[in-house]
Every structure is written in structure tokens, then in C-alpha cells.
Amino acid sequence: MTAHAEATPVGGKLWTGWYRALAVLAAIAGGLLVWRFMVGLGATTAMNDGYPFGLWIAFDVVTGTALACGGYAVALLVYVFNKGHYHPLVRPAILTSALGYTIGGLSVLIDVGRPWLIYRVPLYFWEWNLNSALLEVALCIMAYIFVLWIELSPALLERWTKSHHSRLARVASVTHDFLDRVLVWVIALGLLLPTMHQSSLGSVMILAASKLHPLWHTGLLPLLFLLGCVMMGYGVVVMESALAATAFRRPPETRMLGTLYTVAVVVICIYLIARIGDLLVNGRLGLMLRPDFYAVLFWLEIVLLLIPIIMYFTRPRMRSNLGFMFRAAFIMVGAGVLYRLDTYLVAFNPGDNWSYFPAVPEILITMGLIAAEIMAYVYIVKRFPILGGRPAVAPAG
Amino acid sequence: MGIDRRTMLKSAAVAGATALAGASPAMARERKVAPTNAVGLLYDTTRCVGCKACVTACREANEETRKGCSRTLIRQYSNGSEQSFVKTGCMHCIDPACAGACMLGALQKREFGIVTWNPDLCVGCRYCQVACPYNAPKFEWESATPRIVKCEMCKHLLAEGKHPACSDACPRGAIEFGERIDLLETAHRRIREHPERYYPRVYGEHELGGTQVLVLSHVPFEKIGLANGSDEPVPALQQTIQHGIYKGFSAPIALYALLGGVMLRHRRVNRINEQGAGPDDHEVAPGEEADE
Known about the structure:
Chain A is mainly α. Helix content of chain A is about 70%, strand content about 0%. Chain A is globular, with a radius of gyration of 22 Å. A three-stranded mixed sheet of chain B has the order 8-1-9. A two-stranded antiparallel ribbon of chain B has the order 2-3. Chain B has a two-stranded antiparallel ribbon with strand order 4-5. Chain B has helices spanning about 5-20, 55-60, 95-100, 125-130, 155-160, 165-170, 180-195, 235-245, 250-275; strands at about 40-45, 75-80, 85-90, 105-110, 115, 140, 150, 175-180, 215. By secondary structure, chain B is of the alpha+beta class. At the A-B interface, helix 1, helix 2, helix 4, helix 5 and helix 7 of A face helix 3, helix 4, strand 6, helix 8 and helix 9 of B.
């Protein structure tokens, strides 16, 4: 018997009350989506010529993909720094990433105004504008979604290799063996691609120039976005591990999570030095002290980032306390979310009294997409070997 | 167990060599110039009376049926004592932010330096709207098959040897069409001949890298809402950084090689360790399960 048990399906009933509620949200979103494609974006969203990027881009795509960076963050630790005993964290993190990025990709399809031409983005390479940061983001995310599902496939195939249907089992087995050999190169891609597009998501907003408030606009945006997504990746993994352990009655990997928290704190420190240092060098630090809305917003971001650091240093015991770490991770993730929403939306000011706040259908569609994502996560975790650790109690049902 | 030093050095050497092969000395991005046959408009606020004949003519020429929509608009600025009309719309920048943004190049500077939109290459991502400092490109939000709409200098009329509708319609000669070089000369001449009437700059000569729509004003340009501050084209910073990172794609390739090399080495080392270690005592390589 080894120190930790292999990954196994959680099992149990799928259609609980919660699951039904999520399905309702997803169904509402589905209906609204049909309507959105029939009548266009003007009737279904609050986006306008001043604010052409709205909730779907700023949250679903830009923030959502960062929230899905758990797979990236953990893979860095396990495969580059060879911390193999973190391996149990990899599968659930990759699953979240695969689902999160798929939803992000779907959100792009929903947001663009002329989606019937979207296939031309990857296909019409002779038309590629290599100056466009958004093109880099689009191509990279498309590729990364593909890579994530390949990275996840061993977990899915494992169940099918044990299938009663001999042909399915054989195909699964052969595919599984093939993947074993090429997986290093797939995982390397899975580390390269997010590095590229998460930083490019920062580059995208450099072009906004004077429309982005000087406390946010900087040539360091690619670096800040990359650091932010790594921090959010670790934060999300800590939160999810804690939640999954509680919900599915598995022992939490508290010590491993403690290390993730430590690394995240280092990342936040680098981010703060870079951001504030850059403002100092450009003589913009004074903007922090102006009595205006943007200064307050900026301070909020900084304070939210300082809290997990302060918690880390003032409570050395907390790294063995799951509750404390969950709270710190939540704040960390919140800080990351706020930064991205600010850069793409709140600190973006096109002038001329344009304003934007998401419309109800816009919000409901986003909620429904997230509901569908959670439903998929629960289904896969219950039916496929994703989560590790022996169950503390025999699962009910 | 961290990365073995030899592996690190070997991989880094390969990565470094690849990166150097593709790198070039940090160069300032070349400043773009107006095409030799660049056309443009000269708009003179001192002659404009805000009659909006240009707006009506523009709607007609572009067959615009939506209410209140036009590819050019007249706005009014007032601060009590001073007031001015301003004609807004696409400035046909020499180094346009929208063209820098557009993923497939739907928006591009084409004939005569006019920035035009190609429906076959537009997915409606609206990044051009984010980028444009003049908020010129408009999106058909109310449509299920939306287009990006903006001034295209009546290129369909130019093809027939005519002039843009707005310049023909203006009863006061506030809008003049011509080659940019000629318009610049005209503008400077007006300033020379009537220095009391004009703010002594031609907007668009240098601002944001230069535009093909030029403006003469009796008040400073920031008072009439024209983006000021820099002669740097909007795309300059973003593209310098982008190309700095991705020049020749060598950095991504180098990073990929480094990552792959490091992981392969870990796999080999882990397998060697396994042979000498107990069943509980091994690390995990890609493709293996934590527990076998």
C-alpha cells in the first residue's frame, strides 16, 4: 500500500437538487443564447461603441481563463520543478483548466459579432496581422483548449480501458499507450501556450493607450497579467482542493496546498514590486494619492494583494489550517479578478460620457455558462478517476 | 529533487542559441509616412457654422437608413465665451491603431491611404473600437449580421472622379478635399495669412504619427476634444513590446525546447532513481501515475 491512493471516481448520485438547479440556469442561458444570435448584441447586451468589450470579454474570457490557470500553475510545479508528490493535484487542476478554457472559447464565439467567419482566424494564415496581440491570444487559446483535453484524456481513457466493451477497451488502451510516449511534448506545449497568451492578454490593452487610466496602462502589462494568472491559478487550486475534499469527503492535501500558498505569496511580491516600481519610475505614483475613484480602485487592488501576504507572515501556523488558506486564496483570487476587470473595463474610459454596466441577459448567459461548467466538472469527477486520496467515508448511493 | 545542473545548462544553452539566432538589436520601430498619393480632408472650424449639410450628404452618399447615424457627425464645444463646432469621424491615421489591432487585417490602409473595412475578414471582435483614440469605428449593434461602419472617404465616389460628399456639400468651404501634401500647404498658408484667426498648428500634421484628416482651429485642439499629447503613433508601444518578445518566434521555440528538455531529463533521472529506491520513494514523470 502506498502513501497516497490512486485517483478514483467519486461515484454517487448525479442529479442532486443542486445539480438540477444548475441545469435550470444552464437551460435559461441556452434559451437566451438562441435569442442573442437571432436579434444581435444590441438587444441582448449593454455593450456600445464606447465600451465594445463587456462582461463576456472582461470576465468570461480574460478573467475566466486566468481562473482556469490552475492546470498551468500546478504543472509548472510538478513537471518543471519535479515536485512529483504534487501529482494528485494535477488531474483536478487540468480538468478545471480544460473546462474553464472551453467556456472561455465559447464565450468568444458568443461575443463576436460575425461568428460565421471565426474559422478564418486560424485558417486564413496568409491574412494574419502579426502585429495584433488579439490574434496571438485567439490562436493560442484555440490551441491550448485542444492541448488541455489531450492532457486530460489519460484520466478519461483509464476508465474506458476497463470497459466491458472489448473494442472500446482496446482502442482506449492503444491510445493511452501512445499518449504516454508523447505526453512530455504535449505538457511542454501546455506550459508554453498559457505563458504566451496570458501575457498577450496584457499586451492587448497596451493598445488602448490614453483610454486606459495611467495607473493601469504600462508596457509591463504582459508581465503583470502573467504573474496574475499564476497567482490566480494557485489560489483556485487551493480553493478547489478544499471544496472538493469537503464535498466529496476526501482528505485534503493540506501540506501541498501550503506550499502552493507560499509560491503564490512570492509571485504576489514580484507583481507588487513590478507594478509599483513601474509607477515610481514613470512618475505616476502621485496618481495614487488623488482623491478620485481610480485612486480608490487602485488602492483596493493593492490592499487585497497585501492581505494574503500579511496573513502568511503573521500566522505561521495557517499553512496547516485549511480554513485560513481557503480564505487567503479567496482574497488572492478576488484581487486577480479585480485587476483584470479593472484593466479591461473599469479603468477603461473612452471619454464622451460613454458608460457600461452589463444587461440582465448578458449576466444570465454568463451565469448559465458557469453553471454548465460546474455540471460538467461534477459529472466527470463522479464518473472518471480524477480525484485522489481514499474516501474518508464510503460514498453514499 | 530539483533540476540537475547539467541538464539546466545544456537546455539553457540550446535555448539561448535559438533565441540569439532569431534576435536582432533592439530597434526603434520605423516611423510610418503617408503614402505619396495620400488624400485627405482639411476641416476649418473657423469656417464651420454647424449647418450639418455634410452629415446629410454623408448619409445619402453612403445610403445610411438608420436614424441618427452617420459616418461623420458635427459636435459643438462651448465654455461660455468660446465655442466651436467640430467635425468628427475617421481621421485616416498614417499609422492607424485600428489596423494594428485587427486580427485578419479587415481594417487596413488601402488605396490613397484611406483606411477601409473588408467584410470578408471581420469577425466582429471590436478590438478596433477599443484601439481607436477617436472612437471612429461604429458597430451595428442592432443587427444580427453587424458590420463595422466608418468614413471611407467616399471611395466609391473617388472611383468616379468625384469628391467625398461632405466636401462637396459644405456651403462655406470648411471641408476641403485634396492630396494631403497640398492640404498641408493650404493649411499653413491660412495660418500665415490670418494668424489672429487660427491656433498656430495644423492638427494631424504630426499628432499620433500624423493623420490624413487635418484640422484648423481657432482654439487649442484639446478644447475641441481632439486627442493631444503625443506624436507617437498609438500602435508604437504595443508593437515594440510584442515584437520584442516574439521576434522571429525564437523565444517561444526556445522556451518549448527548454521545457521539453528539462522534463525529459526528469523522466530519465526519476526512472534511474526508481531502480534504486523503494516503491514509496519515487517522483512522477509525465505519463506515469503517482502510484503504479
